[in-house]
Amino acid sequence: FPSHDRGSLVVKGSRVEKCSGTPVVASGCGMEVVGNVVTDNGSGIRAEGGGNSVTYNLTGNEITLNRSHGITVNGPYNCQWKIVNNVISSNIGSAIWNQGMGANQTSMLISSNTIVGNRGVMSMGDWNSGWDNNFSGSFVVTGNQILNNKRSGDVMMMGHWFGLYNIGMRLVVGGNTVS
Questions:
Q1: Closest CA to 141 of 168, 164, 118
Q2: Per DSSP, what are the bridge partners of residue 45?
Q3: How many angstroms separate the CA atoms of 80 and 51, rounded?
Q4: How far is the C-alpha of 169 from the C-alpha of 108, rounded, in Å?
Q5: What is the pTM of this model?
Q6: C-alpha angle with apex 22: 105 to 151, nearest 5 degrees?
């Protein structure tokens, strides 16, 4: 991605709690959310759209006890996601949820997170290399601890809670601990 600045929401070292909606939202700009506690809200962190070659960096956060999804990715395109070293736990929705359209020309790195006790782990679909297939990005899920998550009170089953579907680009899944 180009190194020039396309704008960014920056939230570092904060505690965000007891908001009825989604307290951390970036729309049409990048996101640098590092070292925060996002707890007891309507939902946790959300990004609207993408484009402009922006980066969404969510690193070292504690995203817990939200009444919906921990992280919502809404219609990303032409951007880069890094969800690394977070604790995503006890959210009533999924830990990571893709809402709306799929993603074109968007890379995703989900690595070294602790994902515990959510109603689902992730639902991510329709990620494509791009309209002209010249994009060389990838979708990577590695080194995560995924423990004791449930879907609507049921015992976890791979097809129901670890939803990666229609990934039309390089997909790497490995080194995760799942129980």
A1: 164
A2: 24, 71
A3: 10
A4: 11
A5: 0.89
A6: 80
